[in-house]
Amino acid sequence: MSDDRTGTAGGTRAFTVAIDGPAAAGKGTISRAVAERFGFAHLDTGLLYRATGRRMLDGLDPIEAARALVPEDLQRDDLRTPPVADAASKVAAIPEVRAALVDFQRAFARRAGGAVLDGRDIGTVICPEAEVKLYVTASDAVRARRRFDELRGTGHEVTYETVLDDLRARDARDSGRADAPLKPAEDAVTLDTTELDIEAAVAQAVALVAERHAA
Description:
Blueprint: E1 16-20, H1 27-38, E2 41-44, H2 46-57, H3 62-67, H4 82-92, H5 95-109, E3 115-119, H6 122-126, E4 132-137, H7 140-153, H8 160-176, E5 189-192, H9 198-214
Parallel strand pairs: 1-3, 1-4, 2-3, 4-5
Helix pairs in contact: 1-9, 2-4, 4-8, 7-8
């Protein structure tokens, strides 16, 4: 989470950019780049669920964990591991957990100076009135390769097949849950990064935000 609002475009008015999409599609990288470009605050909402999942793995009831989150919980260095990602997807399917985290996310979204939030239900549930809505996606194979390279690069012993299976299982769980399923908002712009490098994907997102912000 960052709160860099020194950019010239941010100003003092509330302006929300909602970026959703499945794991490893590139939404986090795009969100951080957009926030930096415009001087908006940034919130990776997935960290809230990862931190809750991590506390569940520690033995805490997930609903109590969500209600008791503190900023330090978002700083743990194991939140990007596969077991925590799996736990995050599971706790995110619990309506009481989502309810406990909604108010925080909505308040962050409407802060003065602008905000970028990335997650899975930002444009559909958390911020349906966001000025910009993006749905970032990519093919299963490309997303699995990106996540595999990321995990191997940080020392995790995984196979590509396992990563692909885990991504598909998580997609099914996130898309199939009754409460706030993963799906693009009806008025979201879809950005498919399968054939795009990160510079091209960021450029498209920045152009869209600049157009809406100037309106």
